[in-house]
Amino acid sequence: MLRSILKAGVLALVLAQGAAAQERARVYIQIEAQPSLSEAETSLRGYASALSDVNGFVLGGGWYGIALGPYEPSEAADLLRGLRQQGRVPGDSYLAGESEYGRQFWPVGAGLGSSSGTSDTEAPVAQSVTQVPVTSAPLGETAALPEAPEAAEAPVAAEADPLFDPETPAEARRSEAGLTGEDRRMLQVALEWSGHYAAAIDGAFGQGTRAAMADWQRENGLEVTGVLTTRQRERLLGQYNAVLEGMEMTPVRDDRAGIAIDLPMGAVARDRVESPFVIFGSGGVEGAQVLLISEPGDRDTLWGLYEIMQTLEIVPLTGERSRRNDGFVLTGANSRITSHTEVGLQDGQIKGWTLVWPAGDEERRARILGRMQASFERLSGVLDPAQVSDDGQALDLVSGLPVRRPRDVAAGFFVDGQGAVLTSAAAVAGCGRVTLDGGHVARVVQQDDALGVALLRPDAALAPRGVARLRASLPRLRSEVAVAGYPFGGVLSAPTLTFGALAETQGLGGEERLARLDLSASAGDAGGPVLDAGGAVLGLLMPRGDAARQLPEEVAFATDAEALLAFLRSAGIRGSESAGEGVIAPEDLTDVARAMTVMVGCWD
Fold first, then answer.
1. Quick check: 447 and 426 in contact, CB under 8 A?
2. What is the pLDDT of residue 123?
3. Residues 409-453: pLDDT tens digits?
4. Is the bond preceding 146 in cis, omega lying within 30 degrees of 0?
5. Which residues 6+ apart lie within 8 Å of 238 measured at CB?
6. 219 to each of 196, 212, 213, 222, 564, how far by Cα in Å?
7. Residue 124: burial class (beta carbons within 10 Å; 0-12, 13-18, 19+)
8. How far apart are CA 172 and CA 229, in angstroms?
9. Beta-strand relationship, 321-324 and 289-296
């Protein structure tokens, strides 16, 4: 009898121990970790609205885990597989034992079935919280969350040990061994960003990487081992990616353009298609813009695009340019924006992209730029060159994008065969850059403010179609004259002639170097040549002067040719003279004027 009782007792003990072991063997599905309690609670509410058995645990090191369970191991594996396939949990979710979790803070009042994850100092707090039953629901249904008692709030999280990490160095090495090459390189990139690593990004964890990991652990108040635990890796990458919060880096596929690329859709929004561009205008970040570039073509088309892109406002003039046989890179920056363009030619298709980002946000711009460079992919298909809307064809637009324009436009005229240009001193005052006919950069080589004239020399020698012949002696009063200039602010590329008459051989105050004209001139005519009926230059048209001096509209002034010749000779240019022979037909006069006259652009 006694033997039977003992056997029964032993059997009961064995069964109890087996049940306890089975109880302890339960696992959780770890789905997420957040660096703050508020972020964790926000995420928990989202998961709890769609999944059952949702729990929140203190992980240590300032991190808070979100897990489903607990489940039997076999049940958990099948459930995890199904949840991943349905896309209801992150793809990197994994199974974790109860011992990996610290204090449970969600649902409020809930506790682990086993005390293995709770320290002695935590027990009184857990016991002081009213226990509330947790309702489980089948997969796919919503579990009804119990209302939290008002007394149970944040004291649990406030007492969490920030250095707690259940993963030992040996376990950390085992989890590290499962990282892919890309995972390992990303950790090196994050360590480089944090200022702890300065070697090659090769995914090889040698002495340099280990030292960087140790330095990062030391700086973050963690145990220094040189091997990052799973949670430490998550924390490091979280710090690295924090700069992209709100940018919503999203894979974008445009089949019409034949391009796939990651774009910051939290900063830009798709606008329209104006071949060769798919335009993403500013969205969440003012000044941000993205272009997808796609068009059929050859090398000539590529070089044409290279030149056209540099006329756009979104490609500032200051920056590096590089061009190769099959593509180009354009960078530019000013006080408002930084721009980066990459374009390549392959199999008769030109494809690329442009990122425009507001100035002063370099770290975020660089990170977005890197993501775009790494993700750019050519697909089949190319934009139809005819896909341009009526709104995209204005004179000051290229495919719907504003063309960069000079601050002011004035006129000038060639005075020697190498392209030296005479213009008004006011036309080039305060200019960051001066151009001739829009594309040739020039510099001021001599200036006479008293005379009001400036001499320009192009950086690269030009071969003008015509050079001014200056007439030192003025014709008789009331003789017909004409001025060549740009009265429409450069909208027309060719100069326009405005006709008038010589009214006086001196200025209103008796100035001998000025001639007064009966002629209605505009600001764009200033600096242009004043011609007699035979095509000789009588002088250089002056700006109208300050607004305080209200002169009749038909009154204009010109610096006479004799003073201009003296100025040119002081600059080492002999100048071509004319005695003012004869009269030529108006159409011939127009040809003479257009051959010598040049548009002077003043740029910021």
1. no
2. 32
3. 999 999 999 999 999 999 999 898 899 987 788 999 999 999 999
4. no
5. 35
6. 10, 11, 10, 8, 72
7. exposed
8. 5
9. unpaired
Q: Helices then strands (H, E): number in the chain?
A: 13, 31
> Structure tokens of 539?
């002088």
Residue 126 pLDDT: 31
Contact, 595 vs 413, CB < 8 A? no
Q: Mark 186-202 as b/e (b = at least 16 C-beta within 10 Å).
A: bbbebbebbebbeeeee
β-strands 469-471, 576-578 pairing: parallel
DSSP state of 403: B
**Ranges of the chain with pLDDT below 50:** 1-24, 112-160, 390, 392-396, 547-548
Longest dimension (CA), the chain: 149
Phi first, then psi: what are they for 264, rounded to 5°?
Answer: -80, 80
Q: Residues of 330-358 as b/e, b for ≥16 C-beta within 10 angstroms? A: bbbbeeebbbbbbbbbeeebbbbbbbbbb
The predicted pLDDT at position 16 comes to 45
Q: Summarize pLDDT for 52-93 with one digit per residue, the tens.
A: 899 998 887 677 889 999 988 878 888 888 888 888 888 778
**pLDDT score for 377:** 96
Q: Is 521 helix (H, G, I), strand (E, B) or coil?
A: coil
Round to whole Å and give the CA distance between 106 and 59: 13
Three-state DSSP state, 429: coil
How far is CA 472 from its chain centroid? 56
Q: What is the CA radius of gyration of the chain?
A: 39
pLDDT of residue 149: 41
Tokens of 434: 């001066």
Show Cβ contacts of residue 296 under 8 Å, excluding neighbours closer than 6 positions. 348, 349, 350, 382, 385
Judge contact between 44 and 105, C-beta under 8 A. Answer: no
